[in-house]
TrEMBL record, chains A, B:
Keyword Hydrolase tagged: yes
Gene: pepX
Keywords: Aminopeptidase, Hydrolase, Protease, Serine protease
E.C. no: 3.4.14.11
Protein name per UniProt: Xaa-Pro dipeptidyl-peptidase
Similarity annotation: Belongs to the peptidase S15 family.
GO molecular function: aminopeptidase activity; dipeptidyl-peptidase activity; serine-type peptidase activity
Subunit structure: Homodimer.
Source organism of this protein record: Schleiferilactobacillus shenzhenensis LY-73
Domain of life: Bacteria
Length: 806, 806
């Protein structure tokens, strides 16, 4: 167990007192109280689930302060001070730690040092230090990863805090909004935002169904900001399987051309749209209730803390008009239309027919976007428009250019476990409007046209970057990002690959905005409920700063770049930057099977066969098993389909920081060729699992009688493994210059390929070896040729550049 | 997709009208309405999430009735009747089915026949038939497995149904209680029931913390029944690993004895207990709020429908007094103490110290118990006491005798994946009182005594049935069961093995009570959210009958025995009985490797080695992989450790109904021996997975803005498998007569073992073969001897008896 806490503030004592008083933890007259009464009174506040003194005493009698004395017994003596060890023994029990399991011999201080939990140095603790200690305790994280005030909140601390006589208001503690709002009465409603699109060409502007969950306190005049998640999956999905592509086919030679970027650049033209609907009246009351719930526990956490949450599926989803375009400019416009309404710049109606307009009268106009994957992608898209009202984005595992999702260097490259998927397949998946049969029947011709357009535009036959993909490259418009920006990504995410976040980061670096980056060791997963890091607290600090104007200095408090270590569990590094272009790279040459820093002595040409497809297809077609065999040092059925080169064992630990680049001199005995290259960490080690383990199902309560979340952690695998994939990359040999230009490929003539693997941050332990594997077909990502081919690699002209963190 | 629906009532028309009127689906003046208005009005009730006519029309305009006409367009013509096909095309869409995916060509009637959904025969539908059709529709199950009225409820149909002016009351439809209660205001409270136990010997009766969730309408005078779940895990668990036993050891020879049952029979003596606490006052208001949530979605479903839910951990759990005894009589008394309070027969206090008593004034006194595993076990225990107030039990995957959980025929036999566990290990697991360090410190000596008592009583060294186990055999008291009883069990549950439910069923069969049995194809899992069967609806019918006195004839409506077919998905058989003692058994003899109905011609002695442990321990120690190798027809490293006999391929389908019994003539070359025997279904087939697949995460809403559950189904495996384990059994060769008597075992002398495998219900498809495998060590369940042994089997004197359903 280790608790990394980056979002906690250390205000001065007077501020601590003010905050404690404001949340009624400290009585106003505390400084006049007898020290013993103060101490007893503060402990008594730690049991909000009970009502009277005898019940508190009963609770305190269950907490040990020394091996043979309970907190109740200790307090019965009316002490003015408490030994530091006694205080923290009690504190750890209040935080959910179990002495017998977690801190033997009641040695709280040793445990807290080990786990990284903060303490007050004074010993014994008395007077002001008691107040300081309780302030610190309230912001200290418990065994379930939540801080103590959140634990108290879940047990009812703030129940009824905003009494009827008060004007409802936000309550901040340690710079973060608290769950004082009545979650049993959340207002749930639906409106229809009128976009400036007519993507289904029905002569009317596309209406966008928008689902709102807002604190009931807004009805009493409180204005609140919004966490908005654009979620194409919100109203359901369709079965993609019928439209997936067969990838069991040879790679097609492409006709050489001299296409330049300007030939494929997308230039946006505002579409002509029908006139807006007539507004027949206005109202402040909606008339439709949502049928779906929120989908992200982080949003629910903030809903209890006064942030409204808003979900919209966008064009082509059930309840909305329009058709989907899988990341196209229309989807961006559809996404920001909701923000424009929230900000007061666009009309919404209470329903699809009556023309009665309704404003987001309960909203401050300040909006943050959240979400993972496609949801986070649309947040990136929105940020690049500079739309008013959008104040910040927390974008997780997001695509920043769709070419980097479905393509790479002139090849069709599937996201992991998604062979045969493409933009049209995903469009079918998210086109939930299809579920309303009569609605679908009316726009079926437009749907068919969209599918045809996507098929044509994505140009699966060539794999090249073209205007279609350029229109889906949000990074082109990165300079329009005027807002503070947070990116979160898994370093083992082979669905949305890390290039998406890294290339965006390269653009954000020099923008005059605050930007933060979180890189965890997971796959395509959330990180908000990981025990070892206070992500939720950091987001609370961030949203309060960005949306509510709380002067908590969040941009300075949060690390610029937070990276989870892959070798040591529960360890999160804070860095100033990641993958800087200027980082020096170590160059490796190849001799025999060795990667070494000295240039090779002699020329050497090696070869491998690309004939694994029949064997793969005859088996259980598990690309993960295939990949494990490919990476294995041991001889196996696929060994002849690769070339593997290894460094000597590392003398000391090293950290790869950014992008490994390879230069390969390759020939193939046919007119088309695909090269895959993988970087591998070899060394027998128990490694982190890329799927976090559930430590406690529903172990986090996000409010009082409100939503719950599991507590998770990235744990070590039970058994040591021999290797781990660090990164990989792919290139079509005809796209050795650019992804839009096709070069000629003559059988058996060597060409130079120079390409980057996916970026990473990877800790190589001393004694481990870095491996570089060169092969052709990637069963899980590329097409799988049935025709065998022979590839040759000229080692003398090949090299690998690795950026190491200083 | 197939929908088995056993809990639907078909009342006569006047009753249908009365019920529809009562829930305001049908206007009181319906018979005076123009037929077109009636039809339109009934459809309009199907969109409770919107408020006005234009919004309803918009919704209706999204539903197709013919290929080119929407429901809105159809109703705009003011039809008096609707073609049957049109009505059901619309109905299926309202039920969540998607034409393009689920019923191509809008052919609703063909689909409904295939899926088993009921329809009205009239065509066209008009007049009273329209009313009948809507009544039927409301009770018809949708794609997520819930009936249409539940779907409407989730969308707000009953929101505000009980207005402030009404006296709150239950609303029944089709014999089932509806979710008219306000789940946003559930009352959550804690009381402390005073038991008549002092298991921690502190001189005070054990107080039992009891958590209550009750409808807020009880505050307005409504009395409600209770679903009570005795849940030792409710307040948390401890890590069991440190106290688990090492099973890598030889089987110990036992000293022969002539113990008879009377020597080990347990005779209950009421313990002496301290006087009750003084009652210092009374109150109607509790003062403590619970910190944990409910744990069973079925309970939550009923909480929205007016049934309070109550959870108690029992003695030795956090917040309660006492120590745990893993199924001992003290736990039974602890369990029923809660019912006694709910029924008005026992005192509870608002807290642990002040002596203020509180009654369950909001309760009718009628209680049902629910729960799975240990939770269901305690329901069985409670039922065998005849405690007043307990009206019925729905016990899932329950232990009926703890010997059948941790032991078998004189052997220590672990539940699957629980090697090394025993009663003391489980007692540590559930002794959550340990988490309160000061509380634990005070009773540590009693805890140590309990652990010593359990270790001694369970007598792991012998594995024999003794007084300790007899005290934990609830079936002994089965004749005390005076209440209607439902058992649910998985036929692939190797945690709580099916003998537990089967042996209880043998006792229940002749009791003058209503009893029902559900056998699914799962492991140790719930079945309330399985798409293909209306378990929740049946339970609604049952609880309304048992707890609220609704005259819905539930005992006659529900099948006696409901069994899921293992070969055909989504198929549930209804039988009059299961595993009747009188069922004729087919006898198989053994010749060579064949099981055949003719007696063998000649004597044959075969042997196998029991030497697999070193190999197993050298590998990854995965008992499931080991078991798959053992069952495999193919030659493999464990083949010499088994003898496998197979029938000829079955000429036609057969159903094993109950218990396979084997008679084996065996010798072993040492003074102790353990025999395992397995029945296996051989045949290449895609089989049902024993873990249900999530069809739709959170796809069931259990009320309006209330709890959710996943929709699940037992699906076929992706690839065909060669075999499936039907049942197995184990016996210590020294316990060949009884589990309490040790017989001498002479090395290499043959003895006759006669024992039952676990009971089952299994469909063997034509062309498959039944296999019987005989072996010694069961890596996942028995001790794993390091000393190799040779077993001999005299085939001539061995046979297998199999009960087939007629």
């Amino acid at each position: 167990m280790k608790f990394n806490q980056f979002g906690r503030l250390d205000p001065d004592f007077s501020e601590q007192v003010a905050e404690l008083t404001q949340i009624h933890f400290l009585p106003n007259n505390w400084s006049e109280m007898a020290p013993a009464d103060l101490l007893a009174g503060l402990f008594a506040r730690c049991f909000p689930e009970v009502s009277n003194a005898s019940e508190v005493a009963d609770r305190e009698d269950r907490v040990l302060v020394t091996r043979d004395m309970s907190l109740a017994q200790r307090l019965a003596d009316r002490p003015e001070k408490l030994a530091r060890g006694e205080f923290y023994a009690a504190a750890l029990q209040l935080l959910g730690f179990i002495p017998a399991d977690d801190f033997p011999d009641l040695d709280a201080l040793t445990a807290m040092t080990k786990w990284g939990l903060p303490t007050i140095a004074a010993d014994p603790l008395g007077g002001d230090d008691v107040v300081r200690a309780f302030y610190l305790l309230l912001t200290t994280r418990g065994k379930n990863g939540q801080n103590f005030l959140d634990l108290l909140t879940a047990r009812g601390y703030f129940n009824g805090f905003l009494t009827a006589s008060d004007a409802p208001h936000f309550v901040f503690f340690n710079g973060k909004s608290q769950a004082v709002f009545d979650t049993s009465k959340i207002v749930r409603e639906v409106v229809y935002v009128e976009s400036s699109l007519d993507t289904d060409h029905d002569g009317q502007r596309d209406l966008l169904q928008t689902t709102i969950f807002r604190p009931v306190e807004t009805n009493a005049g409180l204005k609140v900001p919004v966490l908005y998640t654009a979620n194409p999956y919100f109203r359901g999905t369709n079965d993609m399987a019928p439209s997936s592509y067969d990838v069991n086919q040879d790679l097609t030679p492409k006709v050489p051309n001299d296409t330049s970027y300007s030939d494929v650049a997308y230039h946006h033209a505002q579409p002509l749209v029908p006139d807006a609907r007539a507004v027949t009246g206005t109202t402040a009351e909606t008339s439709e209730r949502p049928v779906d719930d929120g989908i992200y526990s982080l949003n629910d956490y903030f809903l209890a803390r006064g942030f409204a949450t808003v979900y919209a599926g966008g064009i082509g989803t059930r309840g909305s008009d329009g058709i989907r375009t899988t990341g196209g400019p229309e989807e961006t416009a559809s996404t920001i239309a909701i923000i424009e309404w929230l900000h007061g710049d666009r009309v919404a109606f209470t329903n699809r027919t009556d023309g009665v307009a309704i404003k987001a009268w309960w909203c401050t106009g300040n909006v943050a976007m959240t979400g993972k994957s496609y949801l986070g992608t649309l947040a990136v898209a929105a940020a690049t428009t500079g739309v008013k009202g959008l104040k910040t984005v927390v974008s997780e595992a997001a695509i920043s250019s769709w070419y980097d999702y479905y393509r790479e260097n002139g090849l069709v490259i599937a996201p992991v476990d998604c062979q045969g998927e493409d933009t049209d397949v995903l469009a079918l998946d998210t086109f939930s409007r299809r579920k309303d049969a009569a609605d679908f029947a009316r726009i079926k011709p437009q749907y068919d046209r969209m599918m045809a357009d996507l098929k044509k535009g994505q140009d699966r036959a060539s794999g090249n970057y073209n205007t279609f993909w350029d229109a889906r490259n949000y990074r082109k418009n990165a300079d329009q990002i005027k807002i503070d920006f947070i990116s979160v990504h898994g370093l083992n995410d082979w669905n949305v690959k890390p290039r998406n976040v890294e290339q965006l980061w390269q653009k954000l670096r020099d923008l005059p905005i605050n930007k933060k980056l979180f890189l965890h060791q997971g796959k395509h997963v959330y990180m908000n409920n990981i025990q070892s890091i206070d992500f939720t607290d950091m987001m609370n600090l961030w949203f309060c700063y960005e949306l509510l104007g709380v002067a908590n200095d969040a941009p300075a408090v949060l690390p610029n770049v937070t990276v989870q270590d892959n070798a040591t569990p529960e360890t999160w590094h804070r860095y100033a930057d990641w993958s800087e272009p200027s980082i020096p790279k170590t160059q490796y040459f190849i001799t025999g099977h060795d990667l070494q820093k000295q240039p090779p002595h002699q020329e050497e040409i090696v070869s491998f066969q690309d004939d694994g497809t029949p064997l793969f297809l005859a088996g259980d077609q598990d690309a993960h098993k295939w990949e494990a065999l490919m990476m294995s040092r041991q001889s196996n059925v696929y060994e002849h389909t690769r070339q593997l080169f290894l460094t000597a064992p590392f003398a000391k630990d090293a950290y790869i920081d950014g992008t490994i680049v390879v230069t390969l001199q390759v020939a193939v005995n046919q007119a088309a060729g695909q090269i895959s290259c993988m970087a591998i960490d070899y060394g027998t080690e128990r490694r982190l699992k890329a799927d976090p383990t559930v430590l406690q199902a529903k172990g986090q309560q996000l409010g009082y009688g409100w939503a719950v979340d599991d507590v998770k952690e990235f744990q070590l695998e039970k058994h040591p493994s021999e290797f781990h994939q660090i990164a990989k990359g792919h290139m079509n040999m005809q796209n050795r210059h650019t992804p839009w230009q096709n070069d000629a490929l003559t059988p058996n003539q060597f060409v130079t390929l120079h390409f980057a693997l996916q970026p990473t941050e990877h800790h190589i332990l001393a004694g481990h070896q870095l491996g570089i594997m060169v092969y052709a077909t990637d069963m899980g990502m590329t097409v799988r040729p049935n025709t065998a081919a022979t590839y040759q690699l000229d080692l003398n002209a090949s090299r690998v550049e690795v950026p190491y963190r200083r």
